Amino acid sequence: MAEAAISTGAPRTRRSSGLSEKGLAFWMVSPSMLLIALVAAYPILYAIWLSLHEYSVRVAGLSRWAGLGNYQAAIQNSDWWTAVLTTFEFTIVSVVLELLIGLAMALAMHAAFVGQGLLRTVVLVPWAMLTVVTAILWRTIFESPQGFVNQILGTNTVWLGEEPQALIVIIIADVWKTAPFMALLILAGLQVIPGDIYEAAKVDGATVWQRFVKITLPLLTPAILVALIFRTLDALRIFDLPYVLTKGAHGTTTMSLISQQTFADNRIYGLGAAYSVLTFIVVMIVSFTYIRTVGGNIRGLAED
Amino acid sequence: MATETAVADRAEPRARTKTRKPRKEGATPWWMWLSVLVICIFCLFPFYWLVNMSLKTGADLGESSLFPPHPTLKNYQSIFHNDDFVRALGNSAIISLTTTALAIVVGSFCAYALARLRFKGKFAILAIVLSITTFPAIAIAAPLFRLWSNIGIYNTLIGLIIPNLTFALPLSIYILVSFFKEIPKDLEEAALVDGATHFTAFRKVVVPLAAPGLATAAILTFIATWNEFLLAITLTSSPAARPVPAAIAFFTGSTQFEIPYGTITAASVTISIPLIILVLLFQKRIVAGLTAGAVKG
C-alpha cells in the first residue's frame, strides 16, 4: 500500500519541484552534517594537533613539534593514572548503586497503582536539578556546622576534606541525581513486558521471586544494558561535581578535571590536550560498545 | 488533537494494551504507600533542604535545624541585587534559547530526512550523531580554549553557543528521528498523491503533526544546555559571558572558609525553579523523550 502510494506520488513530485527524493535528502541532511563537522570534528582534530606540539610557557604563541612526547609524558605521570583510577572507581561504584536503586524504584513505581503520575513527576526533580546545584546541596548537607550528617552519625568528619570521604560524597550526589533517571529507563522497559506471562507463571505456581528472576530480569536485560552503558559513558566524563565540591583535592581528580586544570589553569596546552585526547579515546571505546548494543535500535530508526 | 495524544503518549501505548495486570485486591497494601513515600522523600528532601537553607540568615546558617527558625527572604533580595547573578541569568537564557532554537530548526530537517526519505548512508549518519552525544566535552574544551582566544571570541556568548551546539544538535536530531517515525505516514502520502512535493508535505503536514515531538526535543535540549558546566567554566573569564552554573561555582570558590551559603542556596533555588516548572508541565513528554532510544537529557 505505502509503496504504491509513494510510487504514484514520486513522478509528480519530481515534475513539480525538480528535486528528487535523494536530492531533497541531501539538502536536508547537509546543514546538520556541515555544522557537526565544524563544531565537533574540527575541534577534535585540532585537539590532536595541539597534543602533538609543545607550547612555550614564557613566550605566548611559540610552539614546536613534539611528536608523541606529550603522550609519553602523560603515560609516565602518576597523577594521570591516579585520575584514571579515581574516574573508574567513581564510575563503577556510582553506576552499580544507580542501577540497584533505579531498579528498586522502577519496580515500586510499576507496582504502584496509587500516584504513578505523581511519582513520575517527583523522580524528575533530581534529574532536572543543575549538577552545580546538586553539588552545593550535598555540600550543605554533609559539611558541619550547617549540615546534619555528622550530628546523625555522631562523627566529627570533615567530609570534603578527607580521603576517601570526599569521593563518597561525590558518589552520593551523583547517585541521587541520576538513579531516578535510571528508574525511568527501566520502568519503560518494564511496561513492555506482557502481563499474561506473569499470569501463566502464577498459574504454574511460580513464586514472586521466581517470577522476578525468571521473567522480569531476562526480559528487562536489554533496557538495563542500554541504561548501564549510557550511564557509564556519562560517569566517565564526570567533571562538575569534583570541580565544585573539591577542585580535585583529596583523591577526587578525574580524567576530565586533570585535563582541564592542565590546559586552563596551568596553561600547559600540549599535555592538557594529550590528556583530553586520551579521555576522548577511553570514552569512545565504551561508546563503541554502546552503539553496538543499541545498533538494532539505530537500524530500526534507519529503516523505511 | 488525536495525533497529539498519539505522540504524547508514545511511551506507554503498549503498556496500555498489553501489560496492565489485572488487580484483584481492593485495598492498597501498606508497603505500596511506604514505597511511594520513600521515593518521594529520597527525591524531594534534598531540594527541601536547599529551600530551608535559603530562608536562613546569620547565625541560623550555622546550625542544622530542619526548619528555618526565623524564615526570611533576605537572601533572595540580595541575589536579585547582585549584578553578576542577574547578568548570568540573562546570559544563560540567551545561550540556552539560541542554542535550542538553532539545534531544533537545523536538526528537524536532518531528522525528517533520516526518518522518512530513502537514501544511502542513514545508518552511518545516525551512528555518528549518536556517538557525538557521548563525546566528553573536555575533548572540545581544550582546543576551543586556545582557538577562541586566537580568533577573539573567548569569553563571549557566541563562543559558548557554538560549542553547545556540538551536543545540542545531535541530541535533538536523535530525539526527533524517533518522533518523526511515530507520525502515521498516511496523511503525508495523501499529500504526495495530491501532488505536493516532499518538502511541502514536510512543512504543511509533518511539522504541525510533530509539534509535540518538537516541543519535547526543545525542552530536553534546553535543559541540557542550561545545565552545561565544563565549557561554561573553561571558555569564560568574567561575568560578562558567564552563564548561571559557572557564576554559582564562582560564588562558592571565593574563599575556602567563609562561604555565603544563604545567598548561594537562594540562587540555587531560583535557577532550579524554571526547570521544576518545565518538569511539572511536561512530565509526560520529558519521560517519552528520555526513553526514546535512551537519550540523556
Shape of chain A: globular
Number of helices of chain B: 13
Q: Remind me, CATH topology of the largest domain in chain B?
A: MetI-like fold
Uncertain segments of chain A are 1-16
The CATH homologous superfamily of the largest domain in chain A is called MetI-like
Net shape of chain B: globular
Mean pLDDT of chain A: 85
Helix content of chain B: over 70%
CATH-derived architecture of the largest domain in chain B? Orthogonal Bundle
CATH superfamily membership of the largest domain in chain B, which one?
A: MetI-like
What is the typical, i.e. mean, pLDDT of chain B? 83
* CATH fold category name of the largest domain in chain A: MetI-like fold
User: What's the CATH C level of the largest domain in chain B?
Assistant: Mainly Alpha
Could you spell the SSE succession of chain A in H and E letters?
Answer: HHEEHHHHHHHHHHHH
Give the N-terminus to C-terminus distance of chain A in angstroms.
14 Å
Helix content of chain A: over 70%
What assembly state would you assign to the polypeptide chains in this entry?
Answer: heterodimer
Strand content of chain A: under 5%
The CATH architecture of the largest domain in chain A is: Orthogonal Bundle
What value does the Rg of chain A take, in angstroms?
25 Å
